[in-house]
Amino acid sequence: MSNPAQTADSSNGTQAQPARNIFGNQAFSGYLVLRFVSLVGDGAWWIALAWEAGRLAHGTGIGLVMGIGGVPRLLLSFVGGSLADYFGVKRTMIVSDLSAAVISAMTAVLWFTRGAPLAVLIAVALCFGIVDAFYGPSSMAFARALLADDELARGSSLRQTASSVAQLLGTLAGGLIVTVGFGWVAAFDSATFIVVGAGLAFIRPGRRHFVQRPVAGEQIRGMRHAVGRIRRSPVLRGLLFSSLIVNACGMALINVGIVARVQQLGWPSSALAAIDMLMAVGLIVSGIGFAKWRGPVRPGIAIILSSVLAGALTLGVFTSSNLLLSCVLSFLSGIFLMPVGALSNALAMKSAPSDMVGALNGAIMTVSMGSMPLGSFAFGILAATWGLGAAGYATGLTLIGGCLCLLGIRSLTNATLTEEQP
C-alpha cells in the first residue's frame, strides 16, 4: 500500500494528510486510561464473584450468579442507550460509575460485617447488569464524541486492545486478592469506579455535542427514530446481522465447543487456559499493530473476510487433536478477531447520527447479549443430537457461510470511514 502522505487526491490535486498520532488526542487518551482502570476492576470483580459463588454453591451458584446479570443487559441495553442519547452520555457514564461504586462498597461492607450469602451475590450481579445496560452503550457513544472520522478505526482497535490487556490483568489481580477475601475485591472494584467517575468529569468532548431532550415522551420517540434508522440503513442492518452470526456461532464454538473438545481429548485444564491465553495475546498483538494503521479503504469487506478467516481458524482449533497446533491456530484466530470488533464498532459509530449513537450501540449490545446464550444453547442441543464433532462443523460452517452472505450487501461492502454513510 502506498504511503497516504504521498498519495495525490485526483479530485483536487492536493495531497492526503498523513494519519495523525491518535495519542495526541488528549481527551481520548484520558478516556482510554480510565477505561483501562475500569476494566481492571471489572476483571477482578467477575473472577472473584464467580469464585465466591462457587465456594457457596459450587457450579449451580456460578451459573446463577454469572448468568443473571445478562438478563437486564438483554432487556435494557437499547433503552439505556436511547436514554443516554437524550440525557448525555457523559452524565450517564458518571452516574453509572458512581452507582456501581456504591453497589460494590455495600457488598464489601456486608461481606466484612455479616457475610454475603448466595442471594446477596445474585442480587448484586443483577444490579450490575442494570448498570451495565446504561454504561455500555454510553461508553461507546462517548468514544465516538472524542474521535475524528479518520481516527475511528485506530481508536476502536486501541479501545479493544486496552480492554483485552485490562481484563487479563484484572483477572490476575482478582485471583490474587480473592485469596485474602471477597470483600477486599469488592472494595478494590468500588475504588476503581470512583476513580473513573471522577476522571470522566474532567474529559470534555471537543468534536461534537450530543442532543439532550429531557422532555417527557421524547425518549420513546427517539427510540422509534433509532429503530427506523436501522431499518433504513443497509450498513447498520448488515452490522447487526454480522454481530448476530459472530456472537451466536463464533462464541458458541469458543465457549462451548472448544471446552468440550479439550475434555473429550482428555487434555488438562491448563491446555484450555493456554488456548484461551494465546487467543487473547493474538487480540492484543493485532490491536497494537492495527492502531498504527489508518484502516482499510473498504472496512465492510475487511470485516467479512476477517470474520471468515477467524471462523475457519477457530474451527481448526476445534478439530485439531494436537495441542501445539491448536495453540497456534488460536493465536491466529485472535489476530483476525480483533479487526472484526474494531472495524464493526468504528463503522457503526460512523453510520449513526450523533444523537443516536447510544441507541445504536444499545441495539448491538441487545443482539450480542441475546445471541450468545441462544447460540450456546443451540450448540448443546446439536451436540446431544448429532454428536460433538457434527455440532462443531455445523456451527463453524454456518458462521463462515453467514459471513460470506454479507458480501451481497453492496452498501456494506462499499462503506468507508471517511465519507458520510447513507
Description of the molecule:
The protein has about 425 residues and is mainly α. The chain folds into two domains: about 20-150 and about 165-205, MFS general substrate transporter like domains (Growth Hormone, Chain: A); about 235-420, Growth Hormone, Chain: A. It has helices spanning about 25-70, 70-85, 90-115, 120-145, 150-175, 180-200, 220-230, 235-265, 270-290, 300-320, 325-350, 355-385, 390-405, 410-415. The radius of gyration is 22 Å and the shape is globular. The chain starts with about 25 loop residues before the first helix and ends in a 9-residue tail after the last helix.
Q: Could you list some keywords that capture this structure?
A:
single chain; about 425 residues; mainly alpha; Growth Hormone, Chain: A; 2 domains; 14 helices; about 0% strand; globular; disordered N terminus
CATH superfamily of the largest domain: MFS general substrate transporter like domains
Mean pLDDT over all positions: 80
Structural class: mainly alpha
- Number of helices in the DSSP assignment: 14
Domain count: the total is: 2
Radius of gyration: 22 Å
Number of strands: 0
The second-level CATH architecture of the largest domain is Up-down Bundle
- Tell the overall outline: globular
Which strand-content bin applies to the residues?
under 5%
What is the helical fraction, as a range of percent?
over 70%
Q: State the separation between the terminal residues, measured CA to CA.
A: 27 Å
Low-pLDDT segments, ≥5 res: 1-17, 207-216
